[in-house]
Amino acid sequence: MSEPRAIEQTLTIPYSWGYGAGLEMFFSGTRDRKIIGLRCPSCEGVIVPPSEVCGRCFAQLDWDQPVELPPRARLESWTEIHLPFPGQPTQPPYILGLICFEGAATLFTHLIGETEEDKLALGLPLDVIWAEERSGDLYDIQHLRPADPALRVAPRRFAPTIGVDQDAEPWEPPVPQDQMTPVERIVYALPPRFVPEQAGDWQAAVQFIFGGDGGGSYWVEVAGGRCTAGPGEHSSPTATVKTKANTWLGMAAGTVNPQLAFVTGRIRVKGTIADVQRLNDRTLFERKG
Hints:
five-stranded antiparallel sheet; 6 helices; single chain; 2 domains; five-stranded mixed sheet; globular; 289 residues; Nonspecific Lipid-transfer Protein, Chain A; alpha+beta
């Protein structure tokens, strides 16, 4: 009897994820520095973010009756995150809080900043801190901080960069902007957004290997307080990322879920995964435009 034959192949299922009416209303509000909910006609609780049905009494909500709440909240619970994992909003350690917006009847999860864990308490009043650049997503809210200034500390900053070469020539992309491929526009956008004051003595070299149409090999390096990038193979990467070009572009556009892509094998990482995650840290690489 002949040996069974095995055929290995990768199945790709293109998809896009829509906010839905409730989150669309909520994130349209955060883009304009507003906290929007819907008042339940039955129990009169304000549901944030809005949804079709009240989660407390299951009554149908009225989309024509939005409620704007003040940018304040209270702390209901919290945890301090120390371990890295895919899709984190920033580099650990950081505090993730379960909060209730003032006037709301539901809970919401977001970052707690400008404080320390030992200064927190149940019921602590919090203020919403808006991001300077807002595009209608979860990070329109940069974080929440204690309303009492006595409980605040300076925003978390990494130690000043060690060994920064102040005379080094500014990094320039190897190809003109109008000649870049879509993948190159993403890779080569990192060095100009880099904030050296946030990097401390972090040194890393991430190698990207993009397959499929529009793919290629590129690297991003952080060393000596500078971020550079280029085509080809890096001599000593601390992490290597392998994925299809369209997967990476979808993540950048928000149509591909990074966590799902990672656990389903559409993205493979070898080496120090924290170095890859830090490339998405908005304190290290400022979002522009």
